[in-house]
Amino acid sequence: MLNRRNFLTAAVGVAAATGLAACAKEDDSSSSTSGSGGSKKLVLGFSQVGSESGWRSANTDSVKEAAKEAGYTLKFSDAQQKQENQISAIRSYITQGVDVIAFSPVVVTGWDAVLKEAKAKKIPVVLTDRSVETSDESLFVTLVGSDFTDEGRRAAKILEKVLEKAGHKGPVKIAQLEGTTGAAPAIERAKGFKEVMDADHADDWKIVVSQTGDFTRAGGKQVMAAFLQSNPDIDVLFAHNDDMGIGAIQAIEAAGKKPGKDILIVTVDGVKDGFIAMSEGKINAIVECNPLLGPQLMEVVQKVKDGETVERWIKTKESDFMQDQAKAALPTRKY
Amino acid sequence: MTTTPRWRALTQHHLFWPVAVLVALLLINVPFTPDFFSIRMTDGHLYGSLVSIVLFGSPLILVAVGMTLVIATGGIDLSVGAVVAITGALTCSYISDQADQSALSAVLLAMGIGLLAAVVCGLWNGFLVARMGIQPIIATLIIMVAGRGVAQLITDGQIITINSEPYKLIGGGYWLTLPFSIFVVAAVVAVTVALTRRTALGLLVESVGGNAEASRLVGIRSLRIKIMVYVFCALCAGIAGLMISSNTSAADGNNAGLWIELDAILAVVIGGTSLLGGRFSIGGTVVGALVIQTLTTTIYTIGVPTQTNLVFKAAVVIVVCLLQSPKFRAKVFGARFGSGSGAKGSGTPAATPADTTPTTAAAPKMEVS
């Protein structure tokens, strides 16, 4: 039996701890841009997924810098990979009555309720980087971000080149390291890759194993170690991000094989560590997914605020890199 | 009908069911990966599924061993995942600032700094629980939530990649053809078992978990014991943090040790330690942690579709927990397997018979505040 006093202490403790967490995560960078004239500044509420990778931090920095340059008040919160955190952040932006809400959804589904609340308060919502599935298309104005399906297609296309360059003949056994289950980049990169594979290489390419590595190095390493046990004859690794690829490289090396030679590796993102690995010959090709979308986002936010119509999907500018371009491109990588 | 006394004693040993589950899980892999049990030499070290399981499972074993003692005192430590992240972040950021990242003295100093931070976290938890009388789940929740933020602050939200040969040894290197982490785990487990079973310490821990107030009245410094177990738990988590960051040669403040506290608690429970406190089994915890790691590896090797990973994991955990329950066994397999619930606990000293556990365990709950 729990006595009442204990229960009370516990309840107060929980309240205090969550309050503490909320305070720690809210980061109001308005002070840095204050004093720029009398006109009322545009207030942007931005909820970031988390800071799970170098890519994400670059994305965060880009948004913060661009907001500062545009002279907006940015209310920033980090959802630490949890949808419930993100929903409560968006709710608090609605309560505060910000001008525009932008966020990178942690997962694809489950946003209807909170987006309807925003719509009821007439606060436009801009998605960045990832899309959502919703029953009502009017719940968000636009998406500023990459076309993940196309990244998957590009990965398959560049794999053709990689195979040709390596002189690989015959059937290709592919291992796939997926991103976080349910996340848009994971679903769509897999979809795009499979699309090209089914269309052009139905006979010779085959995905023999596919499993989530949660977009992390540790995940990539552990899953790849298991793959190498169950399927020792893997020819190609397709990793949904560089970090999982880097983890997998370590697992491949521990198994006594040469990454980039015995197993050809194609990854998506293009973070600095990925380029370093590619310049060392351990990754064969990288499909870029550009995180520096801050300036594009601010442009859209201004347009949305002014009531202009914008395209439903504003795609970020991206390119692909083969191994021979790695050394030249490395110094220019910002993230 | 063929039940011999020896078989009966075996099935009633407190480690029987965890070990049985571990063996069953390992065997499931064989049809999918025929050479699952084969171990070969690669680049001067042993390589194979079993080696991988122990290598990747080492941090979990360490965290779970620390957690066992905390749980034995009737507490719980939710902050271990955050401590893992803080330790890795501090150590790697110190190493990455060095001109020569492979200098042994710098690496040792960096590890010392990381472990010191872990101990400070443990002292804080122990202080809140023992001195302030805050419920353990709340007291440790503070560092669980705030600690990951601290780790991200240290790493500046980035993944810090380091290139240090000596540091790589502890979590990803090999010694005498075996993963070095095995030796670290073996040492920690051996020291823990020696301290708790060869001295009176284990008995004191169990006595505090059984009834903290009664223990104090008979002259046991129960506050001191409590602080000690939280510090020990944090230290174990700190070593695990070194291993995890060393394994990938990178500190990831956001993901390192994420949810490891839940896996650790699960490992402790699978190992037969009661969450009510008052008795514990280090051996059971080690087996429990291996069960969880084997389960993870099994999911990867037998090709469970990504979307059903967690369902598969949950199903296995439910089966394990049911098998652990004497009442369930009595119902399903008949009295032969189930009746030994009292004897099951006798493998550990100071165990209370199962039917009296609720009453003794309710007692400490009453006087914590």
From TrEMBL, chain A:
Periplasmic binding protein domain: residues covered: 46-308
Signal sequence coordinates: 1-24
Molecular function in Gene Ontology: carbohydrate binding
GO cellular component, one term: cell envelope
Main location: other
Keyword Signal appears in the UniProt entry: yes
Cell compartment(s), UniProt: Cell envelope
Top-rank lineage group of the source organism: Bacteria
Keywords carried by this UniProt record: Signal
InterPro entries given in the database record: Peripla_BP_I, SBP_2_dom, TAT_signal
UniProt entry tagged with the keyword GTP-binding: no
Family from the record: Belongs to the bacterial solute-binding protein 2 family.
Name this protein carries in UniProt: LacI family transcriptional regulator
From TrEMBL, chain B:
Keyword Magnesium carried by entry: no
Signal sequence coordinates: none
Membrane-spanning residues: 15-34, 46-71, 78-96, 102-124, 136-154, 174-195, 227-244, 256-277, 284-304, 310-326
Top-level taxonomy: Bacteria, Bacillati, Actinomycetota, Actinomycetes, Kitasatosporales
Cross-referenced Pfam families: BPD_transp_2
Region (Disordered): 339-369
Keywords noted in UniProt: Cell membrane, Membrane, Transmembrane, Transmembrane helix
Taxonomic source organism: Streptomyces resistomycificus
GO cellular component terms given for this protein: plasma membrane
Compositionally biased region (Low complexity): 348-369
GO MF annotations, alphabetized: transmembrane transporter activity
UniProt topology in membrane: Multi-pass membrane protein
Compartments reported by the entry: Cell membrane
Name under which the protein is recorded: Sugar ABC transporter permease
PANTHER family: ABC TRANSPORTER PERMEASE PROTEIN YPHD-RELATED-RELATED, GALACTOFURANOSE TRANSPORTER PERMEASE PROTEIN YTFT
